[in-house]
């Protein structure tokens, strides 16, 4: 082995995850998980689950999101087929966003994640406090 050697060896098969699934390298799931795991996507999907929203309405409903980040998030969701964008020919143009059937299908999972987060936020806060104080289990 040379100094420049960087190959990982002797790994064997990747351990199975939930339901016995494994994903060596990139099995086509990683980019979808990256999209759903970004800072703003879940917030935008939650708000769009309530129905059609205008851009300015979404910006008000998602605290802390900048105009640029909302634009990027909506473009990515549109590209992934989760959101449709409709431009009405008015002056100024009125733009509305809505979840597609695939996006609506995602809301059940997002809702479950939100419910889990609400149910466990106290335990997570306690665990963080204990960890920060050096009281690790």
Assess the beta-strand content as a share of residues. Answer: 5-15%
Mean pLDDT: 83
Largest beta-sheet details: 3 strands, antiparallel
**In angstroms, what separates the terminal alpha carbons?**
39 Å
Low-pLDDT windows of residues: none
Radius of gyration: 20 Å
Number of strands: 3
In short:
The protein is mostly helical and 137 residues long.
Model description:
The chain is mainly α. Helices cover 49% and strands 10% of the residues. The protein is built from 5 helices and 3 strands. The chain has helices at residues 30-36, 41-48, 55-61, 67-79, 101-132, and strands at residues 53-54, 83-88, 94-99. A 3-stranded antiparallel β-sheet has the order 1-3-2. It is elongated.
Which characteristics define this entry?
3 strands, mainly alpha, 137 residues
Topology overview:
Elements: H1 30-36, H2 41-48, E1 53-54, H3 55-61, H4 67-79, E2 83-88, E3 94-99, H5 101-132
Antiparallel strand pairs: 1-3, 2-3
